Give the backbone structure.
Amino acid sequence: MVMEVPQDVLDSARLSVDELQVEMAVHLYAQRRLSIGKARELAEMTLWEFRQLLGARGIAAHYDESDMEDDITVLREMGRL
């Protein structure tokens, strides 16, 4: 899919197309509309780079009780707990 953004909008926001993609990815992740994997994909960054960016902006990782339970299950299956 292609999304067209008028150049005057980019100019007004003082953003390049790449910067707009990153801003969209961060915003959608912060709103819990995208997973970290999909958000970093949209931003065209490695997971490490995207996590660093989130940290620099004070955006906490989405990790809840369900995620922890899944991790514990996996660790038990691996014999590490």
About this structure: The chain has a mean pLDDT of 93. Residues 7-77 form one domain. The chain has one domain: 7-77.
